[in-house]
């Protein structure tokens, strides 16, 4: 199979879809790997590195797309890339379709095979192996960024997360106790903040109480607890995930209006529509805006700001499935691997992932192999 890796064009997105180990593994399996020139520079991988590993460097994205049978990316295609996709071409990347009707319809019209990293799911229906590493990065970044935005020189209320002797510590509220939430809480606890995690999964909260001991408080996530927690928070981190679906709106504009002025909201779930009513997608170039005196940060591709860490963490988990698809073809690979089959969102003009279909009110067609 011919596998193409184009350069990412999303704002400040410096990750790349494949590292040297991926090129070596695929070429040793008899496949050809095409890398767009300078695609890996942001992650510290040169064209020469790729060539030495066995890849071929291609000057233009157009040639990568027109020649390749499978496209391996990091982020979903942008409108200027839609026309580069062709019928039956495999697109293997993060798609996040539930929050983007335009992209969904474009991929259906192009009749590609869209395999989404974020919906590849283990057979027990719980673990999301290709989402987990980027969730960990985003969770840790959320606390790091939030601590910076709380500084008065960034417009915040001028508090240190952990305070110092004789002063109050900041209140950090984490909505969701999954991978994002746990990593955000780890960072916040490490910096000495008062941390509260809200979730609806009681066994999960038991687990969090065990691992964090008395360093965090856990609350069942209902409207009353969310409201009370947000209104006294210095930093709110939205970390809610429903696999493949839009994030539920948990924080209303009224709650934001009652937060302390100079407080900060970071919605990691913005790429799935966001869990905070006042959040809208921003970019690394213009990451923040203010609503009712509260700073909002809602960059959909947060891990793109730490491309070396993120690229290697991501490709550690994506390569396994890329090799399966290349060796067997996408249909046979899906027959043999139920987790991979759950990653197929678009197939030959049909929307074959039910949760996305329900969220976008587009007809759902069960996947037929």
Question: Any descriptors?
Answer:
369 residues, 14 helices, eight-stranded mixed sheet, 2 domains, Rossmann fold, alpha/beta, seven-stranded mixed sheet, globular
Detail the topology: elements first, then pairings.
Elements: E1 2-5, H1 20-28, E2 32-36, H2 47-53, E3 56-58, H3 61-67, E4 70-72, H4 79-82, E5 90-93, H5 101-110, E6 113-116, H6 132-149, E7 171-175, H7 179-190, E8 194-199, H8 202-212, E9 216-220, H9 223-231, E10 235-238, H10 253-257, E11 264-267, E12 288-291, E13 294-297, H11 307-328, H12 330-336, H13 338-341, E14 344-347, E15 350-351, H14 354-360
Parallel strand pairs: 1-2, 1-4, 2-3, 4-5, 5-6, 7-8, 7-10, 8-9, 10-11, 11-13
Antiparallel strand pairs: 6-14, 12-13, 14-15
Helix pairs in contact: 6-7, 11-12
Q: Can you tell me the residue ranges where pLDDT is under 50 for at least 5 consecutive residues?
A: none
CATH architecture field of the largest domain:
3-Layer(aba) Sandwich
Number of domains in the coordinates? 2
> Number of helical runs?
14
- The CATH H-level superfamily of the largest domain is NAD(P)-binding Rossmann-like Domain
């Amino acid at each position: 199979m011919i596998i193409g890796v184009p350069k990412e064009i999303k704002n400040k997105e410096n990750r790349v879809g494949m590292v040297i180990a991926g090129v070596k593994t695929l070429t040793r399996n008899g496949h050809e790997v095409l890398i767009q020139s300078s695609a890996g520079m942001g992650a510290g991988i040169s064209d020469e590195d790729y060539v030495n590993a066995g890849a071929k460097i291609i000057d233009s994205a157009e040639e990568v797309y027109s020649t390749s049978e499978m496209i391996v990316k990091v982020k979903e295609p942008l409108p200027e890339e839609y026309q580069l996709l062709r019928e039956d071409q495999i697109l293997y990347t993060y798609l996040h379709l539930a929050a983007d009707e335009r992209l969904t319809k474009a991929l259906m019209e192009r009749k590609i095979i869209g395999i989404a990293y974020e919906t590849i799911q283990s057979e027990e229906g719980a673990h999301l192996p290709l989402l987990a590493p980027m969730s960990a990065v985003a969770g840790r970044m959320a606390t790091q960024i939030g601590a910076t935005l709380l500084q008065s020189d960034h417009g915040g209320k001028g508090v240190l997360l952990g305070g110092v002797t004789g002063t109050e510590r900041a209140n950090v509220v984490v909505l969701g106790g999954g991978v994002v939430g746990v990593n955000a809480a780890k960072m916040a606890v490490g910096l000495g903040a008062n941390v509260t995690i809200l979730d609806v999964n009681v066994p999960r909260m038991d687990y969090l109480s065990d691992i964090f001991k008395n360093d965090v408080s856990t609350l069942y996530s209902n409207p009353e607890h969310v409201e009370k927690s947000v209104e006294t928070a210095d930093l709110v981190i939205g970390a809610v995930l429903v696999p493949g679906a839009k994030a539920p709106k948990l924080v209303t504009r009224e709650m934001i209006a009652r937060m302390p002025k100079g407080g900060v909201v970071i919605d990691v779930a913005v790429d799935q529509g966001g869990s905070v009513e006042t959040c809208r997608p921003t970019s690394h170039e213009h990451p923040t805006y203010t609503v009712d005196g509260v700073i909002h940060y809602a960059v959909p591709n947060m891990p793109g700001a730490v491309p070396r860490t993120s690229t290697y963490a991501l490709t550690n988990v994506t390569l396994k499935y890329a090799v399966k698809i290349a060796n067997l073809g996408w249909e046979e690979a899906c027959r043999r691997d139920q987790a991979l089959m759950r990653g197929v969102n678009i197939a030959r003009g049909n929307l074959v992932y039910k949760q996305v279909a329900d969220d976008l009110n587009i007809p759902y067609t069960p996947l037929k192999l």
